[in-house]
Amino acid sequence: MHPDVEPRDKAWERRTELPLFYASLIFIAGYAVRVLAHKADHIWRDIAGLLVLLMWICFIVDYVVRLVLSRQKPHRFVRLHWLDTLVVILPLLRPLRMVKVHDAVQARQNRPRRGLYERVITYAGLSAVLLGFSGALCVYHEERLIPGSTIRTFGDSLWWVSQTLTTVGYGDITPVSPVGRLIAVVMMVFGVALLGAVTGSFSSWLIQVFRREDEKGPPGNESSRETPS
């Protein structure tokens, strides 16, 4: 293959990344209707469930096509694309692919690539919002009918997710079911990772700013260095 020719699997991924992101939004919206509109007419919940299923099939088809185009052995492909495998199994985690989605949007609009720190903060912020909303839906769905649970409304679930992702953890609201606690572990792990990425990038940016200021020296320093004529 000519070195300038883009591999088929990379070309497929580049072309489908943005449509699949929209599909993930439809998936989350359909799941939200299934969870939050539990008292609504069953026909709307059935339509939402059908949309969720169709979007999930799209994710699976995309994964299989990429596997075939890569010409890699399945176990090697799974090892190298473990995040994609996890997203196919749990589509609500698809916001974790926000980096590739962001790059696809920038490339499609012919915009120059943003700086590293700006990209990290944008990725972490969008991922936290979408992942937090998905986690809140899952926890509310699992906890609202459990005896002894303190998560009775979707507002309670959002409050709990906010505490968990920011690693505050007041402890006033906690999941009690096994699935709810498993979701809590996932939120804790990714919350620490996202928060660490933001704080680390912000600290590095500040260090660079201060370093540039130190290299410039105090105001008027250049004039004081000029030799008198």
Describe this structure in words.
This protein is an all-alpha fold. 73% of the residues lie in helices and 0% in strands. The protein contains nine helices and no strands. Helix 1 crosses helix 5 (98-108), helix 6 (116-143) crosses helix 7 (154-165) and helix 6 (116-143) runs antiparallel to helix 8. The longest helix is centred in the C-terminal third of the chain and has 39 residues, at 178-216. The N and C termini lie far apart (66 Å).
Topology, element by element:
Elements: H1 8-36, H2 42-70, H3 74-80, H4 82-89, H5 98-108, H6 116-143, H7 154-165, H8 178-216, H9 221-225
Instruction: Give me the secondary-structure category.
Output: mainly alpha
What quaternary form is this?
single chain
Helix count, DSSP H or I runs of 4 or more residues: 9
Largest β sheet strand count, sense and barrel closure: none
- Extract low-pLDDT stretches: 223-229
What key attributes describe this structure?
229 residues, mainly alpha, 9 helices
